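Hey, resending since the last one bounced:
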Amino acid sequence: MPRFFIEVAYDGLKFSGFQKQENAVTIQSEVEQALSVFYRRPFNLTGASRTDAGVHAWQNFFHFDDNIYIENVKDLYHLNRIIPFEIVIKKIFKVADDLHCRFDAVKRHYEYMITKTKNPFLLNRAYYFPYRLDEKKLIDSTKVLLSIKDFQAFSKKNSQVFSYKCHLSSANWNFENEIITFTVSGNRFLRGMVRGIVGTLLNVGKGKNSDADFLKIIDQKDCSKTNFAVPPYALYLKKIEYNSSLL
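The structure tokens again:
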């Protein structure tokens, strides 16, 4: 049976995360509902990256198998009229029958945005953090992330995973006027991982923790020492990459 990918983008603020949950409004539940209303049949989607409640995405994917006929321009217009304004269905396209939107993704890119000054235009878009940061310490500690493989320290408790191993290909800070952005790319990310990394690194930059403390948190693999207490609304899933020959 043919397999289709659905590309979506969304403002995650009002949703209880990406993946479908019982008695909760999620990105998946809203997309499935829109598809079911328009095509008049049930849909059960598989998601690519399970962003947490409040997290935004410029690009995320679902896949489904069906013999459905899709007129892309016309269907997208009607689907986007049905679905809440905070979600946009950007594309629906056929892929190889065995391409899995989650397991065949080769790289994911995230960005976390921080504002040093109070800015009403960045409300629920960036983390207001008016504290002085030691940029050199922040950058030096961040470099460590590229040499480690086990990220258990940055995975929230009760994460249902078989492995904490991840490979980060890049992790950088950009300081531009009053806006600070942390960008990170890797093959996979654990539940709460990016926010845990950002929060713990901010403790280093703020002087609350030392470089040695940061290394100790990583070595001990104890998430109780990790700072997850940074808001989800400043986190963006920017892009998911696949081997282009499979698409």
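The longest helix spans residues 193-206.

Sorry for the duplicate.
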